[in-house]
Design goal:
The complex is a heterodimer. By secondary structure, chain A is an all-alpha fold. Chain A has nine helices and two strands. Chain A starts with a strand and ends in a 5-residue tail after the last helix. In chain A, about 60% of the residues are buried. In chain B, α2 crosses α3, α4 runs antiparallel to α5 and α6 crosses α7. Chain B starts with 10 loop residues before the first helix and ends in an 8-residue tail after the last helix. The chains are: A mainly alpha, B alpha/beta. Chains A and B meet through α3, α4 and α5 of A and β4, α2 and α3 of B.
Chain lengths: ~210, ~325
């Protein structure tokens, strides 16, 4: 079975950060349609700060995820700071003692990240939030682990589940957060949080897939 | 709109720096966190600490209400974005005089999360924290879902009452209960005539067509109850009074405090035009105007518009409103 070595895989987090920074304007534009248009600005600020601190350091995936979570949590604020902060801190904690990460460990680290989000947020699936991308990703990873799928296949399916979840937010009415004030007017637009979440899950899956030991 | 701006990303830090420099006799920066503004009088040994916080762009809120007999420490967020849990926690620490701390804040998703996390951090540090969540904005949710309503300019009355109660030597529970009573006695409504722009985003964050107004608008441009044709000031004032008092249901003879705040770009004289009619309407309904505030108390960058807050007074609330305070915001 293919696995990822935890040690030395911290660069995956820098790759996730690069994807967020690349999509800064896009995320703000989506957010601007039903939110206040600063999602990309705040996300890029937090993720690039974390990437700067990780630059040139050899870290494990767990250490790098924790560093990202701590920056978001203590320096970004808004709703996204604590939500993504807790997600990354809990994801890191789930693998801090793991030498290698296999499909089952991957599923459990995503589940832990979801639990982190749920410990601070009050949203449910269908509320047009990041959970609409994250929950299907977690469930898909868990199903892949249960079915004994190989790791690359599980990673691809997880990434796709997050993308599909993001796409479904287009038809949802926002139930929580600033966009919820718009009611029906929030329909027809992607949710910015689900979009950034699908980018993160995708970059994480790609980063792991590129580093698997076979 | 043309702006006084350097790098848009530095606006909040520069605002806070200028603010503490200008009001050095009343406020200082927390030595460990440039996003926490602390009263020069705080912490007071044995006094309940009073904390608030929120996104920037609402000046003089929130930082302007830091001072003597008011808020002890304020957590400062990015423009229209909640402060971090760490900043709320540092504000709690800075205001802690050993008698516990109340955090009096508005009902926004980010603030709710960050305050909750700060409360946990404070508990670990042995500081008891109680909270009051303001929900005075009538248009932000129906009456039977009051817990969903946002906090707006009524927060100023909550801080004033909470700060005065804490200064009287009351216990943590008493300060919390009195601040809760204060915000429960408040109802607010906003009317927007033109939108505002986050400088880093560069375009208005919502639209109000020429000749229209958004009745019930929120402090970040959240849509209100109706988009209507712009009307003469008296008719707008009548509508604001109607929305607030229909929700409030106050018996004749009730003494009230009224606060009319500009949203940033409405001239003061227009606020007095509104106030003149508002005061007449309130008196015509048999209410007694005990205290009035007209000015820019809680703004939204350069939004054109105004908010009305009516607070029903009892003896205690009126006495606490009368307590002398020293802070940059009043």
């Amino acid at each position: 079975m293919a696995t990822l070595r935890n040690a030395g895989s911290g660069a995956i987090v820098s790759e996730i950060a690069a994807v967020i920074v690349e999509n800064r304007a896009y995320l703000s534009e989506i957010d601007g349609r039903i939110g206040d248009g600063d999602h990309g600005v705040n996300m890029a600020k937090g993720f690039s700060r974390a990437a700067e601190r990780l630059a040139g350091r050899e870290t494990s995936l767990a250490e790098a995820l924790d560093a990202l979570g701590q920056v978001l949590m203590s320096e970004i604020g808004g709703s996204m700071g604590p939500l993504y902060g807790m997600m990354f801190i809990e994801t890191a904690e789930a693998i801090e003692d793991a030498e290698t990460i296999d499909v089952a460990k991957f599923a459990s680290m995503l589940r832990a990240g979801l639990a982190g989000v749920e410990s601070v947020g009050a949203a449910k699936v269908g509320d047009k939030t990041m959970l609409d991308a994250l929950v299907p990703a977690v469930e898909t990873a868990e199903a892949a682990a249960a079915e004994g799928k190989d790791f690359p296949e599980a990673l691809a399916a997880t990434k796709q589940a997050a993308i599909d979840g993001r796409e479904r937010t287009r038809d949802l009415v926002a139930k929580i957060g600033r966009a919820s004030r718009l009611g029906e007017r929030s329909k027809g637009v992607l949710d910015a949080g689900a979009t950034s979440c699908s980018l993160i899950v995708g970059a994480l899956a790609d980063g792991i897939a590129a580093r698997l030991d076979r | 709109m043309q702006r006084f701006v350097n790098n848009p990303d530095d606006i909040v830090d520069e605002t806070v720096r200028g603010f503490v420099r200008a009001h050095a006799e009343l406020v200082r920066l927390d030595p460990g966190n440039p996003r926490v503004v602390v009263s020069t009088a705080a912490p007071v040994e044995g006094k309940v600490g009073v904390v608030t916080g929120g996104g920037s762009g609402h000046e003089p809120a929130f930082i302007g209400y830091t001072g003597r007999n008011m808020v002890d420490a304020v957590a400062v967020g990015e423009l229209f974005s909640s402060p971090t849990a760490k900043s709320f926690h540092d504000a709690i620490e800075a205001s802690n005089g050993g008698a516990g701390v109340v955090v009096l804040y508005g009902n926004y998703a980010g603030d709710n999360m960050n305050v909750k996390m700060a409360q946990k951090l404070a508990a670990k540090a042995g500081i008891e924290v109680l909270t009051v969540v303001a929900n005075d904005d009538v248009s932000s949710a129906p009456k039977d879902e009051r817990e969903k309503r946002r906090g707006v300019a009524g927060e100023i009355f909550m801080w004033k009452v909470g700060g005065a109660k804490a200064a009287s030597g009351a216990s943590l529970a008493e300060v919390r209960d009195t601040a809760q009573k204060a915000i429960d006695a408040c109802r607010s409504v906003g009317v927007g005539l033109a939108p505002c722009t986050l400088p880093a985003v560069g375009r208005p964050n919502f639209a109000i067509e020429p000749g229209k107004m958004e009745v019930g608008i929120g402090h970040h441009g959240e849509p209100g109850v109706a988009v209507e044709d712009l009307k003469p000031a008296n008719e707008i004032a009548d509508e604001m009074v109607r929305i607030v008092l229909d929700d409030h249901d106050l018996p004749a003879g009730t003494r009230v405090a009224v606060l009319v705040s500009g949203l940033g770009a409405t001239p003061r004289n227009e606020l007095y035009v509104l106030y003149d009619r508002i005061a007449a309407q309130i008196e015509a309904r048999g209410l007694v105007l005990a205290k009035s505030y007209v000015g820019d108390y809680f703004t939204s960058l350069e939004m054109v518009g105004a908010t009305l807050t009516v607070m029903a007074l009892d003896e205690e609330l009126e006495a606490l409103l009368e307590v002398e305070t020293a802070c940059p915001g009043f």
